[in-house]
């Protein structure tokens, strides 16, 4: 009987410590997004050449290049962090190139 009480009280005392450790290891979506952004920039990609979006898991379209690439997840898997590469087109310079070719 004493062993059961001792074991029960020990589990009761240690359970908040385990829960506190799990809570401290959970990363927020915004902090994870900032961490991934820094890693991408350190790999030589300009900050203006990409964007990261936090999207609910049910809105992510699999195998769709337009939606980007999943680079992380947060909120216990309920949200995905999606990398989208931006294409910068400059229509002004394209028009001036075309006008020069016509002259």
Radius of gyration: 25 Å
Number of strands: 3
Give the count of helical stretches.
Answer: 3
Mean pLDDT: 75
Helix content: 40-55%
Termini Cα gap: 100 Å
Q: Biggest sheet: strands, sense, closure?
A: 3 strands, antiparallel
What's the order of the H and E elements? HHEEEH
- Unreliably modeled segments: none
How would you classify the helix and strand content by structural class?
alpha+beta
Q: Largest beta sheet: what is the strand line-up?
A: 1-3-2
Shape: elongated
Strand content: 15-25%
Summarize the structure.
With 103 residues, this protein is α+β, with helices and mostly antiparallel strands. The protein is built from three helices and three strands; from the N terminus they run ααβββα.
Topology (elements, then pairings):
Blueprint: H1 2-25, H2 29-42, E1 50-56, E2 69-74, E3 79-85, H3 91-102
Antiparallel strand pairs: 1-3, 2-3
Question: Could you characterize what this model shows?
Answer:
This protein has a three-stranded antiparallel beta sheet, with helices on one face. It has a domain at 44-88. Helix content is 49%, strand content 19%. It contains three helices and three strands. The termini are far apart. The radius of gyration is 25 Å and the shape is elongated.
């Amino acid at each position: 009987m004493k062993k059961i009480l001792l074991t029960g009280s020990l589990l009761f005392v240690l359970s908040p410590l385990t829960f506190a450790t799990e809570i401290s290891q959970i990363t927020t979506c915004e902090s994870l997004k900032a961490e991934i952004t820094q890693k991408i920039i350190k790999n030589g990609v300009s900050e203006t050449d990409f964007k990261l979006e936090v999207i609910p898991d049910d809105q992510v379209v699999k195998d769709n290049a337009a939606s980007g690439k999943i680079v992380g997840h947060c909120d216990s898997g309920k949200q995905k962090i999606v990398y989208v590469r931006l294409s910068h087109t400059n229509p002004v310079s394209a028009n001036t190139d075309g006008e020069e070719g016509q002259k």
